[in-house]
Amino acid sequence: MSLVDTYRTIDKIFESEVFKDKGSKFIGYAFPVIDEGQIKIYIEELKSKHHKARHWCYAWRLGKENFRFRANDDGEPGNSAGQPIYGQIQSFDLTNVLVVVVRYFGGTKLGVSGLINAYKNAAKDVLEVSKIVVKTIDLHFVILFEYEHLDKVMRIIKDKNLTIVHQKMEMSCEFEISVRKKEVESTLLAFENLRCLTIKEKEG
């Protein structure tokens, strides 16, 4: 079985066209996020921007392999808003994303089935106009070696097309490198074969 080391997300904020049903207006927003702190900020910004709206329903998904998610109905009937929004995040196979649907109430109740349809379509609309990007799952490693072995280390970094995230160049050198998950085994083997350095996965 091949190792999955990519994930799908979006790279910037997107907004949908207004979805209308019986006078109510629904506007979808999609945000790239990496933590719950960002999520709170974006939701508060939308509440300020659309301060006359009735509801700001949302769903988010975080993580590259082990996912965390939340769906919030924000006062709408249970599972009529947040869950349909989250269903679209799943349908588009996205993560590190927040989708918010802002509702302006039009005076006529839509019923649970009408709400599910409206929130689902508003979320679908914004994700359809979003630019989806595929990113690799990378692990970070720290390499410790003496300066005299720099050429050997750099040769492997070049051959493997690795990214140096941080480096300290003195008599004793320290490199932090980023390695795509499916390349980890061969990369570790290449460095360990040098026998003139130590390499370990960076914690956190």
UniProtKB/TrEMBL annotation:
Ranges for domain Impact N-terminal: 22-127
Pfam families in alphabetical order: Impact_N
Classification via SUPFAM superfamilies: Ribosomal protein S5 domain 2-like
Gene Ontology cellular-component annotations: cytoplasm
Top-level taxon of the source organism: Bacteria
Protein name: YigZ family protein
Family per record: Belongs to the IMPACT family.
InterPro entries: Impact (IPR023582), Impact_N (IPR001498), Impact_N_sf (IPR036956), Ribosomal_Su5_D2-typ_SF (IPR020568)
Example GO biological process: regulation of translational initiation
Source organism of this protein record: Urechidicola croceus
Lineage: Bacteria, Pseudomonadati, Bacteroidota, Flavobacteriia, Flavobacteriales
